Amino acid sequence: MIRDDAGGLSPLFIFTVGSIAFLLIVGAVVWFAIPGASAKHHFVSPSGRVALDIGETCGEASCERRIIAETIAADGSKSRRGCRVPLTDTHLVLLNAFPLWAADEQTVEIVYADAAGQGGKFPLNFAADCTATE
After folding, report:
1. In sequence order, what are the residues at sequence separation of 6 or more whose Cβ sits closer than 8 angstroms to the Cβ of residue 60?
2. Residue of 57, 60, 69, 129 with fewest CB within 10 Å of its CB?
3. What percent of the chain shows pLDDT beyond 90?
4. pLDDT band at residue 37 using 50, 70 and 90 as cut-offs
5. Under a CB-based contact definition with an 8 Å cutoff, are residues 78 and 96 in contact?
6. What angle do CA 45, 100, 108 make, to 5 degrees?
7. Contact indicator for 110, 124 with CB cutoff of 8 Å
8. How many CA within 13 A on the CB side of residue 93?
9. Which of helix, strand or coil describes residue 104?
10. Distances (CA, A) of 98 to 9, 12, 67, 90, 127
11. In this structure, what are the phi and psi dihedrals at residue 96, rounded to the nearest 5 degrees?
């Protein structure tokens, strides 16, 4: 420890520790004050050519669900598209999700379940359901 000649702690040491503690407290407050996605998943197809980002945030009366599909073409170019999510539930249903990829990776079934284990699955056809480009 840093001590001054009288045997006490240095004012610089106290100021440094106090500043670090203050920054940690402010950081924690900001971290918990910013709402994040209630459910978030990232899946990659077996070949690595398709990646899915799934997010779900629910408020008091509605939920917002987003799926972004990123595909890599044969020439190496990438495209990102937003996909329609056919769920209208007003509570979190994508807490547990898992993709079942088709052999050609042009479609995927998303199997999902809420906190109570209730859920189902829905198909996602990238050509038909993912048309919103970024």
Report:
1. none
2. 60
3. 51
4. very low
5. no
6. 75
7. yes
8. 20
9. coil
10. 55, 53, 13, 20, 20
11. -115, 120
- Residue in 47, 120, 59 with CA at minimum distance from that of residue 87: 120
Residue 121: its H or E element: strand 119-125
Q: Strand 107-113 vs strand 50-58: parallel, antiparallel, or unpaired?
A: unpaired
- Sign for the CA dihedral angle at 72, 75, 81, 83 comes to negative
Report yes or no: 37 and 18 within 8 Å, Cβ to Cβ.
no
As a whole number of angstroms, the distance between CA 39 and CA 29 comes to 21
Which two structure tokens, joined as six digits, stand for 63?
């939920």
Give the whole-angstrom CA distance, residue 86 versus residue 59: 18
pTM: 0.68
Tokens 């999902």: give the residue: 112
Is 121 in contact with 76 (CB distance < 8 Å)? Answer: no
